[in-house]
Amino acid sequence: MSTLIEAKGLSKSYGNHQALKSVDFTVERGRIVGLVGPNGAGKTTILKAILGLTSYQGDLTVLGMNPERQRHQIMQKVSFIADVAVLPRWLKVSDALEFVTDVHPNFKLDRAKYFLSKTNIPMGAKVKELSKGMVAQLHLALVMSIEAELLVLDEPTLGLDILFRKEFYNQLLTEFFNEGRSILVTTHQIEEIENLLTDLIFIRDGNIVLDATMEEVASDYIEVMVSKDDAEKAEALNPVMQRDVFGRRVYLYQGVSRELLEPLGELHSPSVADLFVAKMKEGK
Question: Which structural domain, as residue segments, surrounds residue 274?
Fold first, then answer.
């Protein structure tokens, strides 16, 4: 199976508020997909639907199964990390290993001990005695020791310093990710993960406003830094967004050829963060 997640017309309402508005998307095997949007855009609702934690309208399959009816089977092959604070503070590290061994048939205890042996986490320590970085390492060791096909990460490094964040994602790439597994991650720290991503999904007000591979983003979007003398020419080419940088104006374009833009100034690919800002403001 090459498609791990497929959504068609996925919708969800909370009273009069429509959190998801008939969205379509897929996650293929062997991909790292960034799901990015402002607070309240619908990211968490999508994750809850995938994990079988909320009802929804439309069609959704995860590993070929229905999350509402087959959540137990799905969670045998899906792992999830949210904010590091979800582990009980009274729980000992050794007890956490024992618990997951008892409840998850695909958990590999020896593998978890191997991962923990590369950290400074004492087996007898309680979660409340660990730093935030250590709790993140414990989470990751538990998750990477499950023979999962899909890893769902919801702001997994929230509150961690930059060194732990970089180590967290480095471990994911070296120890978990391969062509048979996929990662779906939501984060506000877009700059830190954009070099890891293979695919990008932007969501705004319950609608998906961008769904593309990173290669498609690189070929379809381009920025040009323009002098004031060429500003009128640049604006005539219908930029998606413009901003001022050090006295010069930067224009973002979609689907405009490099040949048209090269005479105007210096060309470069937009960062994911700049593209995100543009798509959030588009049409407003």
Answer: 218-281
> What are the pLDDT digits (tens) for 158-197?
777 888 888 888 888 888 888 889 999 998 878 888 899 9
User: Which of 205, 233, 255 corresponds to the end of one domain?
Assistant: 205
In a domain, 210, yes or no: no
Which of 49, 44, 282 shows the shortest CA–CA distance to 186?
A: 44
Cα 272 from chain centre = 12
Identify which of 143, 163, 146 has the alpha carbon closest to the alpha carbon of residue 154: 143
Q: What angle do CA 146, 187, 108 make, to 5 degrees?
A: 5
The DSSP letter of residue 63 is T
Residue written as token pair 């591979």? 213
Q: Kindly provide the residue ranges of all beta strands, DSSP E only, lying in the chain, ordered along the sequence.
A: 3-14, 17-28, 32-36, 57-62, 78-81, 150-154, 182-186, 199-204, 207-213, 221-226, 241-245, 248-254, 265-268
Between strands 57-62 and 248-254, the pairing is: unpaired
User: At residue 274, what is the residue type?
Assistant: D
Residue 67 and residue 52 in contact, taking contact as beta carbons nearer than 8 Å: yes
Residues 108 and 201 in one domain: yes
How many Å separate Cα 170 from the centre of its chain?
Answer: 15
Query: In this structure, how many other beta carbons lie within 10 angstroms of the beta carbon of residue 20?
Result: 24
Output the pTM of the full model.
0.89
Please say which residue of 149, 177, 205 terminates a domain. Answer: 205
Number of domains in the chain: 2
Residue 56, pLDDT above cutoff 90: yes
pLDDT class of 84 with cuts at 50, 70, 90:
low
Do 107 and 20 fall into the same domain?
yes
Cross-strand pairs, 254: 221
Q: How far apart, in whole angstroms, are the C-alpha atoms of residue 283 and residue 281?
A: 6
